[in-house]
Amino acid sequence: MIRIALADDHKMFAKGIASLLDDDDDLRVEGVFSNGLELLEFLKSNEVDVILTDMNMPFLDGAGVIESVKRLIPNSKIIVLSMYDDEAIFLKCQKLGADAYVLKNADSDELIYTIKEVHEGNHIMSFQKVLQQNIDDGYSDFYKEKFKLSKRELQLVRMIKQGLTNKEIAKELHLSVHTVEAHRKKIHAKLGVSSVAELVKKAFEIGI
Predict the structure, then answer these.
(1) What are the residue boundaries of the HTH luxR-type domain, all occurrences included (predicted)?
(2) Which residue, 133, 167, 190, sits at the end of a domain?
(3) How many domains does the chain have?
(4) Residue 159 confidence class, pLDDT cut points 50, 70, 90
């Protein structure tokens, strides 16, 4: 079980993220806080595996959280949740020691997989990957409503259709091969296919 603490001053967003994460059997949110000071106070007497922090918060912002937590708990894992695909902000977080940077408009799958990757010790700090989170790539309600495909899954279908292997896709998207394999299993289940050939055929049939 991966124990998580979340700091974000947008209460509705924070509650939604907490609920989403708690729905995953491997994750448990131990606390939700509206600023960095509340989070630090909690961490004095509670242990968590991964910390999620917004950048813009009152009293103590995300940069302050990263700096303080990394000083007090050097082996802590920190993921920044941000509204901004801004390279300067990204580089600041990277310099302070953040383990990953996820945009708030990224797919829920993206956040969940990032949490699991970071927990396993993988440092995911690539600005190209941040930009990938923000690419629409022809996504439409048709794929979302009819097949329940996320943006990332649709992107993978297109890459598989082009003949890319799991390793090539992982390198292109700055993901682990394990993450790509997990995405492919979900895609197969959603589209009702069991092989690459069936997947490619289905992709042509539905216009991907």
Answers:
(1) 142-207
(2) 133
(3) 2
(4) confident
pLDDT at 37 over 60: yes
Kindly state the average pLDDT of the residues 183-195. 92
Phi, psi of 28 (to 5 degrees): -145, 120
E-assigned strand segments in 8-83: 27-33, 50-54, 77-82
Q: What are the phi and psi torsion angles at 185 (to 5°)? A: -60, -40
Structural domain ending residue among the three candidates 99, 115, 133: 133
| pTM for the predicted model, two decimal places | 0.70
What residues contact residue 142 under an 8 Å CB cut-off, 6+ apart? none
Structural domain span for residue 65: 2-133
| Coil, strand or helix at 80 | strand
